[in-house]
Amino acid sequence: MSSVIWYLYEFARKSWAENFAVAKTNAEIVEAPDRFRDFPQVIPENCIACGACTAACPAPQAIKLVRSEDTADAEGQTYPVINNRGCIRCGFCAEVCPTDPKTITCGENHLIREEFTIVPTEIMYVIDDYLCIRCKKCMNACPVYGAIYEADNKIVVDQSVCISCGECLNKCPVKGAVKGIYISNVQEQKTIINLIVNALEERIEAERDNITHLSDTKIYKLDYPIEDLVESARSILANDDLILDTFQKITDRLKLRIVTWDEEKCKKCHLCVNECPSGAIKYDEEEDVIKRNPKKCLRCSTCYQTCPFGVAGFFVARFLLDPPSLEDGVIHITIKASQLPVGAD
């Protein structure tokens, strides 16, 4: 009985009531640490619409690219939108975002600090998991224990141990699976890469009429001599070995997506207009036709998979430099229909 009376007395005290009314959470609990992984934050003006974040996201419907409305002064901005209901806060989108400053941030742990970056003197070797067949010949050839190891069914090079001897590259049986990356002249390499990719896109665009009606079982081939590209590259960088290495890296790995548009098949159902994430497909009321703007297109294949009448075509182009030489090299281009699912006719 006395304990009950004591609790009632404590509850009735004015000081207790005042403390209860103005109670505050400890600041140390409220403030999140710098490395806390919160939901990703998006800075739209930094986005280059590369799609790396959507490709890396492991959570369905957690992130998608959208495009704002055009204005009289400028075209709309493409940027990612995070769905917090689907997001698992893994931070992959922030890690793969290539912009500087980043379009997506998710905590200090996703910022690369210069003081922790170890840079080799001239060249570093990496394993391209896309091409690697896990034969482990590079591991057996490596003279430094622990420089190449297997983790999560992937072959990895430890850059802090690697001595850049190149034995892994010499022993690898798959062209391009082991890559020697020159860390000098990085900006020049980027410029040459853009030069080559843009030239290949223009060459393919010129063949659009031949590609549009390409059947699922057919392959379209064309060649692109590289003499003019080599001369342009040499005006940017005076290092033929590095230029050739750049050409080979592009042709080994590059895969271009191509979207074609056959207006004659269109029934104006507006499904593609409603589903296009970038606003590249619009209905023109004056001409009573649905049009696609290639400059706004992200080549995401949504229209191809949505349209039940086959208006949109979706193709993939791959490349091979043969022979691997700057003097007489030719880039072989192979184009075939994508194997993605498509709406039934």
Automatic annotation (TrEMBL):
Keyword check for 4Fe-4S: yes
CDD domains tied to this protein: MtMvhB_like (cd10549)
Pfam families membership: Fer4_10, Fer4_7
Keywords: 4Fe-4S, Iron, Iron-sulfur, Metal-binding
Domain 4Fe-4S ferredoxin-type: 38-68, 78-107, 123-153, 154-183, 257-286, 288-318
Keyword flag Iron-sulfur: yes
Entries under InterPro entries matching the protein: 4Fe4S_Fe-S-bd, 4Fe4S_Fe_S_CS, PSI_iron-sulfur_center
SUPFAM superfamilies given in the database record: 4Fe-4S ferredoxins
Organism domain of life: Archaea
GO molecular function: 4 iron, 4 sulfur cluster binding; metal ion binding; oxidoreductase activity
PANTHER family named in the record: PHOTOSYSTEM I IRON-SULFUR CENTER, PHOTOSYSTEM I IRON-SULFUR CENTER-RELATED
Protein name: 4Fe-4S binding protein
Taxonomic source organism: Methanobacterium subterraneum
